[in-house]
Fold this sequence. Notes:
Shape: globular
Strand order of the largest sheet: 2-1-3-4-5-10
Strand content: 15-25%
Helix content: 25-40%
Amino acid sequence: MSIVVTGIRGQLGHDIVNELISNGYRDIVAIDIEHLDITKATDVEAFFKENKPSVIIHCAAYTAVDNAEDNEEIAMNVNVQGTKNLVLEAEKYGAKLLYISTDYIFDGENMEPYEIFDLPNPLSIYGKSKYLGELETIKYSRHFIIRISWVFGKNGKNFVKTMLKLGNEMDSLSVVSDQVGSPTYTYDLAKLVLEIVNTEKYGIYHATNEGFCSWYDFAKEIFKLTNNNIYVNPISSNQYVTKAKRPMNSRLSKASLIENGFQQLPHWKDALKRYLKEIEVIE
């Protein structure tokens, strides 16, 4: 089995490659922008003509949520046209295609966790671009779409690392308390991605660690586990204005995972503790 993984400099792509290697896969082509610009159709065509993969795990994306508001053309080119180029090549070679999507495709106005069939209504350019990428993906029958949220991993920037840094520099900080979701450890997510892609159970899945919390709750747990007594002040989204609007409710239902017999991921608090040990912040 020949596997192409895009976006390997990102948190999830990095962990997926490690998971493949640890499971004995050797025919892996791990790429990022310096290896292939997925927005250039002729380059993508030449790349796939040479590699002819049986599986494509597509993690590459323009993920700078706020910057996307000022760079719509770039975000759309990467997340929509880039995905379209990969879909065309997957179809040509009959490869399975797994597309990583996001909670940002929803507007967050629901009171309950979002189901896979709930109507997307993105609030931001980033969310819109990822949803349009989904629409390109579903044109091909052998597809998986995995929507994720609030990820943290060893490779790259994330909320946990930001909190750890601020916790060492400040006596107090303010964190939004009215946006709710599920922090998700890319190490756990990578295992599930591999499990899913090794089946023929095509379709859409929501994949996050179990449990829900606010960003404020998440920050409090980070400082609790690291024995940092910094004062965390809960604030509303209206008090922390960002260029791109975030969904207030990012809770995602895992019903599709359960119905298809896949293992649910551990609780986010368990995941956070293991992550802090991995990055050697706690013992």
